[in-house]
Amino acid sequence: MNSRQRRGVILLLLSALCAIGAFVGVLSVIRNVESKVGPEAVAYRLKAQVPAYEALNPGQFEKVAMPERWLPPTAVTDLDRIRGKIAATPLHKGSLLQDDMIVARPALKPGQQEIAIMIDAATGVAGKINAGARVNIYATFEGRRPQDKPVSKLIVANVQVIDVGKLTPLSKDPGETPRAGSTRRATEAVPITFALETKDAQRVAYAESFASHVRLALVAPGGDGTVPPGDRTYTLDGDK
Questions:
Q1: pTM
Q2: What's the domain range around 95?
Q3: Where does residue 84 fall: left (phi above 0), alpha (psi -120 to 50 degrees), or beta otherwise?
Q4: Average of pLDDT values for 7-36?
């Protein structure tokens, strides 16, 4: 073997050693990355904004894969966990869904039933009443006779709100007669669902049918909404 052949063999050996070294280096980098990243896990990200207290459904989320070690311990990895849940706060597009973002929808107790009525959005809700809140329901009735004074009554105290629906435009029926004493006509209303016992449900249904106005008063958190018997009925004459 001449010198030129020996140099060729040496270069081939050096090239092979370099290739093996590069391959080992790549494997080392891959193992190092894998050791830092670890296996992947499935999580869910919001596809759009979700208002607070709105019921959740799987169509609002998209599946994403991310390293398990980077996944927050509160991340929701199974969409079955949102069944019957509502958003605890406004949820923003692109946010990773986590346990502290959702709460259970208020449930009925034994003996209760759900009843929904339309409440004037401008005077009865004002965007501050949500599922889980407690309210007092007031109704104003016109006198049955010309000499009778209008009266405001507390219909039910400390009622639990089960659900707040979407703002709904009220149909304008030209032949509809406004309720007696009503000085303005509501154009938008919100369906509010309450958890009530039978007698209270009847009171609320009666008020919605025959009162000139039905209003909600939000009870402060931690309060019991107690109203003294003497303050449950009001007429203007009572301030004289």
A1: 0.58
A2: 40-104
A3: left
A4: 70
